[in-house]
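note to self: dont lose this again. the chain is below, predicted strucutre after it. 312 aa total, dont forget to put it in the shared folder this time
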Amino acid sequence: MQQEDFPTMSDEQTVEIISADQILNRIRTRKAVNRRNFLSGLGVTGASIAGASLLAGCGSKSVAMAAGPSENDVLNFALNLEYLEATFYSYVVTGGDIPSGSTGGGPAPTGAPGGKPSFQSQEIADVFAEIYFDELSHVNDLRVVLGAAAVARPQLALNALGTVSTSNYITFARLFEDVGVTAYAGAATDLTGTNLQYAAQILAVEAFHSGAIRLIDIQQSVAYIPGAVVPADGLDVPPYDPGSVALAEAGPTANGGFFATAGANGVDKTPPGFAYTRTTSQVLAIVYANMATGTAKGGFYPNGMNGNITTV
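---
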């Protein structure tokens, strides 16, 4: 700390005694300056950060939230995604729906598989069972944090991109986990305090899942979702997602990288080694399977998401 920030009394001079609040304000100011200097060293400007991670859609409902959604809105948006993940994994692992106490009274999903897929090994079965426990816990945790403000599970269509089966359940899992990681990363600037801490911890778990699923996918040579156009390496979500990784910047090799992190990066200026962020519009474009501005339902959410952030 600089000496002039915290003056002391001496025999030669009398100085103003500053309060504890003034000291805290100076510390906060210095931390903010240091953070800006750090990001500047990475070549990241305030405008690019805001552009990359502003959690707001671009449809009609988004206009009303131009100044930024409330933290409850952001958490409910995350809860909608967690409902989808937990419900999917429940049918894959248990053959049935999540407990009724975790749905908020929402309807049962449509398009559920007729039975559990056959796991290729006990290790894969164990991984999916653990992921199911995590995703159901995310639902329950977010519902506790939101309390009475928590939305109910919306209508889900688990067969939106094909019936879940032994041949594609790993592929669906990779899609859901990749979307979850980038959605939580995009939400960071709209959360504070404990909410931000919880979101960061959930993001870390989603990233654990994503890495594990990607490795299983490669080891099992699983094809991507039938009919989807994908990058040459097949390791990212379909290019109809406006936030997907361009092949040229996906990693150090001609076929792209193993993780969904920035490489050469000439498009959205995400620093190399950083995970990509997605806006709510980009997330909804994936789960609604439609990137047209104004889209408010479709895909895995045939009636749309519940809450105030619902439009591409």
